[in-house]
Amino acid sequence: MSNPLNMKAVGSYRYLPLSDPESLVDLHIEKPVPTGRDLLVKVKAVSVNPADLDIRKNNNYEAESPKILGWDASGIVEQVGPECQLFKPGDEVFYAGSVTRPGANSEFHLVDERIAGNKPKSLDFAQAAALPLTSLTAWEGLFDRLGLSHNAEENESILIIGAAGGVGSIATQLAKLAGLTVIGTASRPESVQWAKDHGADFTINHNSPFAPQLKEIGFESVDYVFCLNDTVQHFANMAEVITPQGKICSIVPVAKASQAGSLDMDLLFYKSVTFVWELMFTRAMFQTKDMIKQHDILNRLAELIDNGKLKTTLAERLEPINAANLRLAHEKMETGRSIGKIVLENF
């Protein structure tokens, strides 16, 4: 007989290659109890992100308690903390959570209500779970960091590096909704097609110099650049094609560069270019005063989806949520060639 105070989960005790069955293991752990503004969510679906891979690889010591990954989830509110104001039991939610807390690869999960949104009514749980982390990153990168208006000035352009990935697929759609001309980078026929299917007006190959390719399609420069892949590798290209007084935002820290190096910020000096970083976890990690903005963004995204203006980037479903399927999803992500999002559903 199962213990009602326990729950299924998937976690790791130390970093191991995915070929090792101990790299991610099935667990039974204690079911958490909500306090403060926490929601206890019965998890219905989770998706996999580069954050899962990074955190699993950084778990390089043998720990007594397992590390639970998973920063994209959808589910049903089971119970609320005493200070909750936004949700009640039975509400369907979607969210990315916080890297300072256990992830959502568990039957039940605690999340602060200020960073959760109402699940889009038109999507099932798997389709919804594909969205939170990438959508929040795209929204914050475009509107909070780059300062885009929701109604762009005429003829403004944006170059999205990595347009076929999870964030790129959402950023492309949001930038088009804002009225920008979107140039996405993609290097394979299937990723080029994915980028165009999600709204890219043009595509160029990020493995070749940017400027000549942009000139071929009629652009001397671009007003904005959103870098979603290897900041160091692409920095000189970005600096060359950004318009004077333009803005660049990246989500990839220098430490994750494919080759050792640093950013020559002087390349931006004469053009007075703004360079900003975006990390979706910042608000939750530092409990910022505007933390509740993520609740508002997720609700706005849900409205756009339910109104048919934005579509999920779910590309593949796996079932059930268990260690074997999560290892498979991580393997697919580690190739760096995955398109869209991989989602696992149902324990």
UniProtKB/TrEMBL annotation:
Residue ranges of domain Enoyl reductase (ER) in the record: 19-344
Keywords, ordered alphabetically: Cytoplasm, Metal-binding, NADP, Oxidoreductase, RNA-binding, Zinc
UniProt-listed PROSITE patterns: QOR_ZETA_CRYSTAL
GO-annotated molecular function: oxidoreductase activity; RNA binding; zinc ion binding
Pfam families recorded: ADH_N, ADH_zinc_N_2
Localization per record: Cytoplasm
InterPro entries: ADH-like_N (IPR013154), ADH_Zn_typ-1 (IPR014182), ER (IPR020843), GroES-like_sf (IPR011032), NAD(P)-bd_dom_sf (IPR036291), Quin_OxRdtase/zeta-crystal_CS (IPR002364), Zinc-ADH_QOR/CCCR (IPR051603)
Stated family: Belongs to the zinc-containing alcohol dehydrogenase family. Quinone oxidoreductase subfamily.
Protein name: Zinc-type alcohol dehydrogenase-like protein
Organism (species): Paenibacillus sabinae T27
